[in-house]
UniProtKB/TrEMBL annotation:
Protein name per Swiss-Prot or TrEMBL: Restriction endonuclease
Alphabetical GO biological process terms: DNA restriction-modification system
Originating species: Singulisphaera acidiphila (strain ATCC BAA-1392 / DSM 18658 / VKM B-2454 / MOB10)
GO MF entries: DNA binding; restriction endodeoxyribonuclease activity
Annotated Restriction endonuclease type IV Mrr domain residues: 152-260
Nuclease keyword on record: yes
InterPro entries linked to this entry: Restrct_endonuc-II-like, Restrct_endonuc_IV_Mrr, tRNA_endonuc-like_dom_sf, Type_IV_Methyl-Rstrct_Enzyme
């Protein structure tokens, strides 16, 4: 059809309107319209634990209680907390254990044995976490007492003090100082990673980069992931620049005080404990 200017455009527009009003939507083969009543399946087999609920009433609630209990134990004993936070989590743990015990009393046969076994394991987890926390607390207290006497320690006493600080922070510590120590006084390990520690008891002056260059050789020679250089004094600017490019962490007197405080309890303005990387 020959177009007649504006009249042709008007006819085309009317045709498009008619087609759009009378046409039915296209369907893709194999596609189905979801029903409004369909729901997504549950992602978890357990129900959220209700701490204020008087009792556990179903296996799903029991599973939720165990999940909540494991997290509460981790949160309580693997983090720096205030006294109020520790008290709240202690109450949460006791409450969850009590409810689980009452639920077990209603079970019979193999089901009861399985839940009792799981309850026994989590009780062992709580006991071991408490014992470890108490052991670290006592180690930190001993380190705190020596911190007050830091100015009167001998080099050997300072090395022992540093070892107790690292133990209180959760490291496995081995004293290796003496002849043939290759510049390492301690070996410390945590999470499968090994580090060496050199303790320098200085009554005056600063630690310079030459000592750290020598210590870097010790880190590499012992195939350690990292080195900690601990001193009662401070480090020179050249020393700080040197370790910025090498796996060595500097711990001076003020930082040592912070680490002891970290081991004892929470604080508002302290930096985190030594990190691996």
């Amino acid at each position: 059809m020959e177009c007649l200017g504006p009249q042709c455009a008007s006819m085309l527009l009317e045709w498009i309107k008619e087609q759009s009003s009378s046409s039915t939507p296209l369907k893709v083969k194999g596609a189905e319209t979801p029903s409004t009543g369909s729901r997504q399946g549950l992602l978890w087999t357990s129900l959220p634990y209700q701490e204020d609920a008087p009792a556990i009433r179903s296996p799903e609630e029991l599973a939720g209680a165990f999940e909540h209990l494991h997290y509460a134990v981790f949160r309580r004993y693997q983090n720096q907390l205030t006294r109020a936070e520790r008290a709240r989590l202690d109450n949460t743990i006791r409450n969850a254990l009590y409810k689980i015990e009452r639920y077990v009393d209603r079970l019979e046969g193999n089901e009861r044995k399985e839940v009792e076994h799981a309850l026994h394991e989590v009780r062992d987890e709580v006991r071991e976490a408490r014992e470890r926390a108490e052991r670290l607390r006592l180690q930190a207290k001993r380190a705190d007492l020596k911190l007050a006497q830091l100015g009167t320690l001998t080099p050997e006493g300072f090395e022992e003090f540093v070892a107790e600080v690292f133990e209180a922070l959760g490291y496995e510590v081995e004293v290796v100082g003496g002849s043939g120590d290759q510049g390492a006084d301690l070996r410390v390990k945590r999470d499968g990673l090994l580090a060496v520690v050199q303790c320098k008891y200085h009554s005056r002056g600063v630690v310079g980069s030459p000592e750290l260059q020598k210590f870097l050789g010790t880190v590499h020679h012992t195939r350690s992931h990292k080195g900690f250089f601990v001193t009662t004094r401070t480090f020179s600017l050249a020393a700080e620049k040197f370790v910025a490019e090498h796996p060595i962490e500097l711990i001076d007197g003020p930082r040592l005080v912070e680490l002891v405080q970290d081991a004892i309890g929470p604080g508002s303005s302290r930096e985190p404990e030594p990190v691996w990387f």
